Amino acid sequence: MEKTFLMVKPDGVQRNLIGEITGRFERKGFKLAGAKLMSISEELAQEHYGEHKEKPFFGELVEFITSGPVFAMVWEGEDVIAAARQMMGATKPSDAAPGTIRGDFGMIVGKNVIHGSDSKESAEREISLFFNEGELVDYQKDSLAWVY
Ligand code: ABT
Ligand code: MG
């Protein structure tokens, strides 16, 4: 099953949005495979955002993502990479559709609440950057026969 890396950014954690955001992926029907509250080191930030190294906003980006704890997650499901990007909304919150996470909660592009892998390659790279194999849990969802 496809996996993606999602992360509530420091602004989302400060704004108490961990539950709201995690709840959206649970209710959608995706499966949580791993999660942790953590601080991002300078090294990890530079590695994670390596593709933006030459951009004018790189310094601010690294400063922001290391400014406080983040909630890192791995979610699993069919086409979860693309579906999560849809649920997150456009990078720039003013372009993000209502009903998406950034459309509902984002205010500025530099603090846009959530990160999600943008391709299979990024998902693999980011999952191994943030999680050890032992931190990911492989399990089945029971049939919910007792819920009626
Ligand atoms: P991320 O999930 O953070 O990777 O965002 P997304 O993939 O939607 O957008 P990209 B293009 O990868 O942006 C990375 C981070 O850079 C910030 N940014 C981007 C700016 O601050 N100014 C800009 O002009 C652009 C294009 C937004 C993203 N993160 N944060 N925080
Ligand atoms: Mg990106």
TrEMBL record:
<keyword id="KW-0546">Nucleotide metabolism</keyword>
<comment type="function">
    <text>Major role in the synthesis of nucleoside triphosphates other than ATP. The ATP gamma phosphate is transferred to the NDP beta phosphate via a ping-pong mechanism, using a phosphorylated active-site intermediate.</text>
</comment>
<dbReference type="InterPro" id="IPR034907">
    <property type="entry name" value="NDK-like_dom"/>
</dbReference>
<dbReference type="InterPro" id="IPR036850">
    <property type="entry name" value="NDK-like_dom_sf"/>
</dbReference>
<feature type="active site" description="Pros-phosphohistidine intermediate">
    <location>
        <position position="115"/>
    </location>
</feature>
<dbReference type="InterPro" id="IPR023005">
    <property type="entry name" value="Nucleoside_diP_kinase_AS"/>
</dbReference>
<keyword id="KW-0808">Transferase</keyword>
<dbReference type="Pfam" id="PF00334">
    <property type="entry name" value="NDK"/>
</dbReference>
<keyword id="KW-0460">Magnesium</keyword>
<keyword id="KW-0067">ATP-binding</keyword>
<feature type="binding site">
    <location>
        <position position="57"/>
    </location>
    <ligand>
        <name>ATP</name>
    </ligand>
</feature>
<feature type="binding site">
    <location>
        <position position="91"/>
    </location>
    <ligand>
        <name>ATP</name>
    </ligand>
</feature>
<feature type="modified residue" description="Phosphoserine">
    <location>
        <position position="122"/>
    </location>
</feature>
<feature type="modified residue" description="Phosphothreonine">
    <location>
        <position position="91"/>
    </location>
</feature>
<feature type="binding site">
    <location>
        <position position="112"/>
    </location>
    <ligand>
        <name>ATP</name>
    </ligand>
</feature>
<dbReference type="GO" id="GO:0004550">
    <property type="term" value="F:nucleoside diphosphate kinase activity"/>
</dbReference>
<feature type="binding site">
    <location>
        <position position="102"/>
    </location>
    <ligand>
        <name>ATP</name>
    </ligand>
</feature>
<keyword id="KW-0597">Phosphoprotein</keyword>
<keyword id="KW-0963">Cytoplasm</keyword>
<comment type="subunit">
    <text>Homotetramer.</text>
</comment>
<feature type="binding site">
    <location>
        <position position="85"/>
    </location>
    <ligand>
        <name>ATP</name>
    </ligand>
</feature>
<comment type="similarity">
    <text>Belongs to the NDK family.</text>
</comment>
<dbReference type="InterPro" id="IPR001564">
    <property type="entry name" value="Nucleoside_diP_kinase"/>
</dbReference>
<keyword id="KW-0479">Metal-binding</keyword>
<keyword id="KW-0547">Nucleotide-binding</keyword>
<feature type="domain" description="Nucleoside diphosphate kinase-like">
    <location>
        <begin position="1"/>
        <end position="138"/>
    </location>
</feature>
<protein>
    <recommendedName>
        <fullName>Nucleoside diphosphate kinase</fullName>
        <ecNumber>2.7.4.6</ecNumber>
    </recommendedName>
</protein>
<feature type="binding site">
    <location>
        <position position="9"/>
    </location>
    <ligand>
        <name>ATP</name>
    </ligand>
</feature>
<keyword id="KW-0418">Kinase</keyword>
